[in-house]
């Protein structure tokens, strides 16, 4: 991968994570007035607002954000394919986009859980980013805590989720095309 491909890939992936966060914020009913949430909303609103007129949300599912995530990956793949001078197969592009969005959501979840776990070791008082991370990850950690409560004040739910995510990632790499290369 040359330097320009790396830069294009990184910029598109960063924006994709912001779009996935936008979808996740609405799904988890996180505090939209939080400064971090406001950053995510302001970074995505110029594109999502016009899309929302054509594709309204279905309950808590923000269909416009979901569609934008797929579009971001498709445009990224088209740009990278154009830069490489290769041909584009539309079916491969769509399949790759779906897989890429799902995998990036998993990567985002991993990093949010890791940062949340590390920050939980320190008493920092109120932090808007930690507050949003808690609101987004708690629906995933709470069911694990019901089955495996804290042992001696040590919460192992993040470790259990990491093991489950790694297992799912290995299964997907084995059975889903493109999973391992994304």
TrEMBL record:
Species this protein is from: Shewanella vesiculosa
Keyword Transmembrane helix: yes
Protein name stated in the entry: YggT family protein
Alphabetical UniProt keywords: Membrane, Transmembrane, Transmembrane helix
PANTHER family attached to this UniProt entry: PROTEIN COFACTOR ASSEMBLY OF COMPLEX C SUBUNIT B CCB3, CHLOROPLASTIC-RELATED, YLMG HOMOLOG PROTEIN 2, CHLOROPLASTIC
The keyword Membrane is assigned to this record: yes
Pfam families: CCB3_YggT (PF02325)
UniProt family annotation: Belongs to the YggT family.
